[in-house]
């Protein structure tokens, strides 16, 4: 390492070539931005082809900063793997939606974030996240039969026309056929439930939004939201907030869950609790 590199802040970069903004050109631009801002990518891991760095690996390499340039699903896996680590994690916008990045940095650009990170001028936070027996959600989670719309979004992202048509039909069918989901503890929203619930973590509470696509017009609105690459922009209402919520299918059935976009399934009623992140995240000063 030369003298100039020795003065730069060293980091371990995690990226995912399958993420929305992780093509070769994007990675080269980010590497260039790191150099310009005074950051040195000392090590890198391409997940899931390569293993995520562990606290022991990072400590041995004398690295105190991990940058994750990937989508929310990869960010989720990386933060879980780094739980309990004494270093800091920098979440960067390397995916399609980048929900956690925007939660931490609002409308800051990538270059602005990297420059402040190099100068150690970003805030250090342990934000509130959602914990359950299925796993953690750092940006948010979706639950209910409406999670099938995520398959349509994935087909659109991959420009798979046949899969998009198939998944759209299935999403329509599941939204109409499967039992809706409701919040039973505390009792929030309507007793007959909703096809989709969004749980959004904040530092002091979990905020719940109910999504509904039950009429022809609302299905059209849902498809328009998909065309904008965010099925979560469909018709929805704020129904309340709490530090802990229990969700259940109206019919007592299993229901789908998306943890930061990663699919899982609940066998029955399931509690989701607000907890504190177990690793330090860099963030825009004063931003929540």
UniProtKB/TrEMBL annotation:
**Superkingdom in the source lineage:** Bacteria
Q: Cite the Gene3D superfamilies for this sequence.
A: Probable inorganic polyphosphate/atp-NAD kinase, domain 1
- The UniProt record lists the DAGKc domain at 11-117
Regions annotated as coiled coil: none
Give the species. Aurantiacibacter zhengii
- InterPro entries linked: ATP-NAD_kinase_N (IPR017438), Diacylglycerol_kinase_cat_dom (IPR001206), NAD/diacylglycerol_kinase_sf (IPR016064)
Q: Which SUPFAM superfamilies match?
A: NAD kinase/diacylglycerol kinase-like
Instruction: Give the GO molecular function terms.
Output: kinase activity
Indicate what this protein is called per its UniProt record. DAGKc domain-containing protein
């Amino acid at each position: 390492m030369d003298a100039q590199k020795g003065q730069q802040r060293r980091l371990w970069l995690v990226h995912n070539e399958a993420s929305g903004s992780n093509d070769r050109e994007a990675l080269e631009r980010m590497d260039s931005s790191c150099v310009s801002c005074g950051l040195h990518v000392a090590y890198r891991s391409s997940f899931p082809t390569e293993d995520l760095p562990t606290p022991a690996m990072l400590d041995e390499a004398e690295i105190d900063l991990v940058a994750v340039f990937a989508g929310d699903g990869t960010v989720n896996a990386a933060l879980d793997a780094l739980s309990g680590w004494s270093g800091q994690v920098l979440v960067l916008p390397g995916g399609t939606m980048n929900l956690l990045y925007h939660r931490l940095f609002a409308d800051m650009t990538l270059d602005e974030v990297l420059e402040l990170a190099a100068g150690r001028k970003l805030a250090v936070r342990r934000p509130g996240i959602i914990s359950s027996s299925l796993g953690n959600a750092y940006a948010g989670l979706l639950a209910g039969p409406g999670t099938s719309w995520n398959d349509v979004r994935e087909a659109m992202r991959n420009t798979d026309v046949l899969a998009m048509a198939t998944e759209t039909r299935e999403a329509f069918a599941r939204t109409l056929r499967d039992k809706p989901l409701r919040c039973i503890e505390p009792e929030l929203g309507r007793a007959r439930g909703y096809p989709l619930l969004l749980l959004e973590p904040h530092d002091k509470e979990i905020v719940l939004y109910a999504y509904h696509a039950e009429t022809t017009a609302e299905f059209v609105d849902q498809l328009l939201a998909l065309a904008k690459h965010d099925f979560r922009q469909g018709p929805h209402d704020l129904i309340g907030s709490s530090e802990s919520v229990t969700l259940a299918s109206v019919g007592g059935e299993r229901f789908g869950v998306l943890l930061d976009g990663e699919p899982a399934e609940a066998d029955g009623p399931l509690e989701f609790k607000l907890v504190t992140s177990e690793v330090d995240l860099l963030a825009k000063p004063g931003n929540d």
